[in-house]
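Exercise 3.2. Students should predict the tertiary structure of the chain below and write it as structure tokens, then compare their answer with the key that follows.

Predict this chain's 3D structure.
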Amino acid sequence: MSSAERVIAAELPSPSAGAPCPVVLADDLTLVVAYICAYLGEQESLQEPVTIDERDRHRCAVITFRRCRIFKFGHPNEEVLRGHRLYGRGLLWSTVGEVLNSAWIAELNAINSVHSSHSDRIFADCRHFVFPFQDSMLEVVAEGFDVAMLTGAVRELSIDAFMQAAVP
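Answer key:
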């Protein structure tokens, strides 16, 4: 891990602290993540867990990552976030972050360096994002993204966005 690696708040919508119900869909180059967004004052007013049916209509963020190089989705959840390697380097629960001087991007570059046509420029435009949700985490390295704020059922919104991204 690079000693200069750190996480800053990304200019992306924050997930609901109660139950963001994230949905992740991907193919070789595109990744779509959709989740229920936080509402103003949610962090302060959340006294007990909230049960949300992901089929209900909610204010959702739908983020389509272009030229996704790699992602991982799953553990850790918010209860063990302090065990993550970026904890203490700016990673905060329920705040989407961008990893600066990413060791993961450096690792991808090192792996690719054995290719006869390798150039460090291949990963120069990549950005590393972390999405700490309540029960899981998403990390993404991609070249770009588009954000849509929509109201609807999170699963349906993610499928619609993924199908639209697949159209040339």
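Discussion points: Residues 41-51 have pLDDT under 50 and may be disordered. Residues 6-166 form one domain.
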